[in-house]
Amino acid sequence: MKYIFSSLLFIFTAITVFSQTISYKIIDNHGKVWTTEKANEWYKRRKWLTGANYIPANAVNQLEMWQADTFDPITIDKELGWAQSIGFNTLRVFLHSIVYKQDAQGFKNRIHRFLQIADKHHIQPLFVFFDDCWNRDPQPGKQPEPKPGMHNSGWMQDPGDPGYKDSARIAELEMYVRDILFSFAHDKRILMWDLYNEPGNQGKNDAVLPLLQKVFYWARAVNPDQPVTAGLWSWRLETINRFLIANSDIITYHNYEEPQAHQKVIQILQSFGRPLICTEYMARTHNSRFNNVLPMLKKENTGAINWGLVAGKTNTIYSWEEKLSDGRLPAEWFHDIFKKDGTPYRQDEVDLIKQLNGL
């Protein structure tokens, strides 16, 4: 905890210097980072943002969700109805560049279909482009079956490793990001764009900075109506964190700690004067729970997007630390809210979420 505070304070004192040398050097003469006034006005126009990181229960990863053969609007419609029923108004949803490479127009058509379903349920999603978490070598086609009792056993990085540092792929990644952003730049059904999930994870550290800088540059070149961001997740990655704070319109972050530690991080991040959205929280066995964290997030006027809506093939009811290879249920679910049939894992949690959302 002491390290978290000292790192964040270092970021805060250095940001005025680095915001000029990093953000505007990278962004050049394209669209600029939103002013704090514009960002706060955008946030004030919305109800308190609550939701979940979402993937259908029958998809093991982003590719299985979005590929033509396995895209399932019926299941999505059903599960987004459950999200609506507890007052969720946003969902964080991961895209994947390989699906775009397979069939760009088909992928965009499926994004349109997803947005139609989300809009029907009064949900504004935020979409994620790149991701440094879990399996390094994503491939098109049939995806791996989940490994019993193993958290996110089939989740795929994007663009993967060594894809993130392959100069030959930069042009196609740029086309992907720019085309998706351009196609949906004025779509009011979209809340915002999360350009890179947990940059530097899996031991990549600052080696991902060139790609991280490029994706922000590409986004600013399009200059969508929606804000762009990427979340802070590891306080030891000081160079990446300075860049993210300098270049994000809305500050987003991840926190799976208990509420007292989580609140102290919020109080430091509030010093930057921008709206805050926690885009990942809620790990029951880490004492990051709905009943102790969600009321605090509402009190702090911080958006709240937990990990997981429906238990399914991602196996995120299991923790990161414990693999139950026989597939038996964990003593307590790590993530997720609903069972596959739509009944809550814990009725008291659902009741609290509804209450805080004014239902």
From TrEMBL:
Keywords in alphabetical order: Carbohydrate metabolism, Glycosidase, Hydrolase, Polysaccharide degradation, Xylan degradation
GO molecular function terms listed in the Swiss-Prot or TrEMBL record: hydrolase activity, hydrolyzing O-glycosyl compounds
InterPro entries per the UniProt record, alphabetical: GH, Glyco_hydro_2_cat
Any Pfam family hit: Glyco_hydro_2_C
GO biological process: xylan catabolic process
Region (Disordered): 138-158
Residue stretches making up the Glycoside hydrolase family 2 catalytic domain: 189-288
Domain of life: Bacteria
SUPFAM superfamilies: (Trans)glycosidases
Identification of the protein by name: 1,4-beta-xylanase
